[in-house]
Amino acid sequence: MKHIVRTPTSINAIADALRRELPQYEVEIKQNPLLGFEYVEVRKSSYSGVWVRLKNDKITWNGVVPSAAARIFLGGLILLIATYKSRKQVSTATGEVLLRNF
C-alpha cells in the first residue's frame, strides 16, 4: 500500500483524473457495504486492479484482485502470486497519475 498526503480533494475528483489519464482501464467509484467508505476501483481485468481510497487527506492505493468470484474460485494466495506483475503495473500507472494530479 502506498499513500500520499496532499491538499483536500474528493473521491469524485480522483476518479475523474484517473478516467481522463488512464482510458485503457475501467474506473468506477464503489462503496464498501460493511464499513461504509467509498473507494475508486481501477480495473485492468478481473484479475488485476487497484483500489484507491481517500481518508483524512491521505490518498492510498493498493493492488488487488477486483473480482470477488475470482478470489473465491481461484484461491486467494495462489491468485495473488500469479497476478503480481499485472497488479504492480496497474498500481504504478495509478500512482503516477495520483502523484501528478494531487
Span of the ends, CA to CA = 17 Å
H and E order: EHEEEEHHH
Count of runs of 4 or more consecutive helical residues: 4
* Rounded radius of gyration (Å): 13 Å
Identify low-pLDDT runs: none
Major beta sheet summary: 5 strands, antiparallel
- Tell me the total number of β-strands: 5
Structural class: alpha+beta
What proportion strand? 25-35%
Averaged pLDDT: 83
Helix percent reads 40-55%
Which geometry do the CA atoms define? globular
Largest sheet: spatial strand order: 1-5-4-3-2
Description:
It contains 4 helices and 5 strands. The protein has helices at 11-21, 68-74, 76-82, 84-101; strands at 2-5, 26-31, 38-43, 49-55, 58-64. The chain has a 5-stranded antiparallel sheet with strand order 1-5-4-3-2, with helices on one face. It is of the alpha+beta class and 102 residues long.
Keywords, separated by commas or semicolons:
29% strand, alpha+beta, globular, 5 strands, 102 residues, single chain
Question: Which helices and strands appear, and what pairs or packs with what?
Answer:
Elements: E1 2-5, H1 11-21, E2 26-31, E3 38-43, E4 49-55, E5 58-64, H2 68-74, H3 76-82, H4 84-101
Antiparallel strand pairs: 1-5, 2-3, 3-4, 4-5
Helix pairs in contact: 1-4
